[in-house]
Amino acid sequence: MTRLADRHFSRRHRLFRALWTVCWALFAAWTPPPLHGWRCMILRLFGARVGSGVRVYGSAKIWYPPNLAIEDGAVIGWQTVIYCQAPIHLGRNAIVSQYAHLIAATHDVDADFALVARPIEIGPDAWVAARAIVGPGVALGTGAVLGAGGVAFSDIPDWTVHIGNPARLLRMRQFPTKNPSPYAPHETPAPQGHSRHR
Fold this sequence. Notes:
alpha/beta, UDP N-Acetylglucosamine Acyltransferase, domain 1, 19 strands, globular, disordered N terminus, disordered C terminus
């Protein structure tokens, strides 16, 4: 891995990431869950673009903050891996649950393991459930759900629920009819089934 790191990343880049790793360990990783504002401030200091009301847990592992953009109200849960070798964008109120992995890079197994990095887009009100994996270049649409343990290496359309490995369509999302949402379709709130993040 050292040989690959030397080939793909400059010394300056690797020193920046070393400093980031040390600072996160010293000033954020151990902090109590309610201190989301403090952790967001540290992310901003290292180049991440972080909106208001964002919740990032200290046990999250974020590879390179300048490649991370988090819109208002989004959540990065505990023990998540945000492997942002390419840009990763979380839309408004998007949720990445515990132990999920967003992996924005891989290696070309047919070309001496050359690095292949592609951006990941998690749309507004989308949910990456516990232990799910989102691969390089994947976009979850607005309101899309990748179920627990699911593995997505292709895009997931708006307002659909996908499960399994590889992820397959389960159904469209349903909303209560007795109490219609006051939001426009593009403003429909994300599922409320994981209050520990909120």
